[in-house]
Structures are given as C-alpha cells and as structure tokens.
Amino acid sequence: MEMIKQMQAGRSQAYPRQRRLGRIKQSLPNILSIALMTVTSVPLVLLYVWIVLISFSGELIGGIFPKSFSLQNWSFLWSPNLVMDGAVYPNVWNMFGSTLTIALGTSVVEVAGSLMAGYVLSRGNFPGSKFLLQSTLLTHAFPAITGMIAAFYILNAVGLVNTLTGIILLKAFAGMGMSTWIIKGFFDEVPKHLEWASSVDGSSRFQTFIQVYLPNVWPGVVAISLFAFLSGWGEYVMVSVFLFDDRTNTLSMILHSLFVEEFHGSYGIVMALAVFYMLPCLILYFFSQQALMKMKM
Questions:
Q1: Are residues 223 and 184 in contact, defined by beta-carbon separation less than 8 angstroms?
Q2: Distance (Å, rounded) from C-alpha 228 to C-alpha 233?
Q3: Residue 169: how many CA atoms within 13 Å on its side-chain side?
Q4: CA triplet 261, 84, 277: central angle to 5 degrees?
Q5: Which residue has the higher pLDDT, 66 or 152?
Q6: What is the pLDDT averaged over residues 213-231?
Q7: How far is CA 262 from each of CA 23, 55, 73, 137, 249, rounded to the nearest angstrom?
Q8: Contact status, residue 222 vs residue 290, Cβ threshold 8 Å
Q9: Among the four 69, 115, 118, 125, which has the fewest Cβ within 10 Å?
Q10: Model pTM?
Q11: Rg (CA), the chain
C-alpha cells in the first residue's frame, strides 16, 4: 500500500514537469523568432536614435557622440535657402512641396484607379477577368529600371518630361497592379446579400458602391493609400531621371546630393534634414496603424 502511494506521488510530480517541457517546446519557435527579430532590429533602432540625437546636437565628441543641445542644424526651416559648408541649395519648403505633391498625387490617382479596378474584378463577371487579375502583378515581374527608356519616350511624346504630373502618373501606374490585388481581397469579403438589399431598396450601382462597399473596405483603402503615399514620398530614381529643373527638386534628391558631395563636418544638418524627411511618414504610420492591422492579403 505504501509503495502504491509512492508511485502515485511520483506520477503526480512527473506530469507537471512534462507539461512544462511540452509548453517550452511549443513556445521555442516563438522565442527564437522574437530573439532573432530583436537582434536584427536593435541596430536599426539605435541608428535612427543616433540620427535624431545628432540633428539636435551642437558639437560632436569624436565626430560621433552629441555633446550639447542646439537647434542650429534646423535653421534651414526658417532660412530662405539651405546653406551648408558655403554651398547654397534651394529652399527646403519648396522641395517639401514638390515631394508632398508627388506623394499625394500618386496616392489619389493610384487609389482611385485601384478601387475601380478592384471592384470590377471582384464583382464583375466577364470573359478574361481571371487573366486580367493575374496580369495586374505582371508589371512587378520585371526590373523597374528597364521601363525607364519607354517611360521617357512616352512622357516626352505627351509633353510631361520634367513635370511633377509625369512623375505622379508613372508612380501611380507602377503601383496600381499591387494595390488592385490588395483591394480586390477586401471587396471579396463583403457579403453579396448587402448588395442585393441595397438594390432592392432602389439604390443605383454607384450608390451601392458608396454606401455599402466603401464603409466595408475602408481598412484596405487606408492601407493602399499609405503604401502609395510612402512610395511617392520616397521616390528617388524617377525624379532624378525625369526632373531637370532645380525648382522641382525633391527632398530625396537633395539628401542624395548632400551625401555624395564633399562636405566637412556638417553631419548635423544632413541628419536634421533626414529627420525632417522622415517625420511625415512616421506621423502617417501612427495614425493608420489600426487600419493596417485589419489588412488582409
């Protein structure tokens, strides 16, 4: 009898240990994933923190560590021109305006076209719809740089070379395939009986689109709007190829110029301009986080 009690006590002690080992084995992949993400993310986060600190620093210790707080590096915000090491560059707010125009224009054109195409591909029933859907991603199968020559000839033919409108159209058309693919998934999730109910109530197709579909696909609209805005905001290759006028310089172009040209010890101004360039993206990201978490691919 005593032996049986000892065996039962041993089993009761063994079971919790086995459960703990099982839980550890189950959570091991998650732990490894989190550790890997932390190791790879920390250097990147530290780099951005360093950029922000340098932008507000008056002096640097060893050319790396900030010594004092100063807003001198941000003087380009209230100065008529950006001046660095004696070189004079265009006004920052003009470049900000050009960059914002490209980003907003790209977002509006791309979202409008993607919404119409996604709706038709999701709810339409016509021959070739499947092939058309598959071809939306075809443009991403080729290196973007290979289309530059054709894009230049087209823009030159229609008189849009060296204009922000030409850059907006190129960026919007380049990203419309992926955005259409994303927003079509949101239209597919809308129950069809809502459309039927709206039709029974006498709504037109356009009214059904506005009153029924848009409220249900708004997370997708926010997501593709954000992606299109960031794509236009960060564009460098197209603006450096198709824009020749200093009056239409963008922030990406001037940042690249500051990095490739020789300068002596003006890291603070470059970092301040980099932080200024990143701010709209960060603000937009924080305000659209909730919608992005609802996005389905």
A1: no
A2: 8
A3: 14
A4: 80
A5: 152
A6: 89
A7: 57, 19, 18, 41, 19
A8: no
A9: 125
A10: 0.80
A11: 27
Task: Decide: 102 and 239 in contact? Cβ < 8 Å.
Answer: yes
What are the Cα distances from residue 168, in Å, to 43, 82, 91, 100, 247? 34, 26, 22, 11, 17
Q: What is the spatial distance between Cα 209 and Cα 203, in angstroms, rounded to a whole number? A: 10
Angstrom distance (rounded) from CA 139 to CA 242: 20
Buried b (16+ CB within 10 A) or exposed e, 207-230: ebbeebbeeebebbbbbbbbbbbb
DSSP class of residue 211? Answer: I
Distance CA 227, CA 233 (A): 10
d(CA 263, CA 156): 36
Query: Residue 5's pLDDT is what?
Result: 62
Instruction: Decide if 135 contacts 194 (C-beta within 8 A).
Output: no
What is the pLDDT at residue 110? 94
Q: What percent of the chain has pLDDT over 70?
A: 89
Residues 49-93 have pLDDT tens digits of: 888 888 888 777 766 677 778 888 888 888 888 777 777 888 889
Residue-wise over 232-263: b if at least 16 C-beta within 10 A, else e? bbbbeebbeebbeeeebbbbbbbbeebeeeee
Give the C-alpha separation, 163 to 52, whole Å.
33
Averaged over 240-254, what is the pLDDT?
85
Cβ neighbors of 207 (< 8 A, separation 6 or more) are 198
CA 133, CA 183: separation in Å to the nearest integer? Answer: 12
Token pair in block for residue 82: 């950006």
- Band (pLDDT 50/70/90 cuts) for residue 277 is very high
Alpha carbons 181 and 215: distance in angstroms, whole number? 19
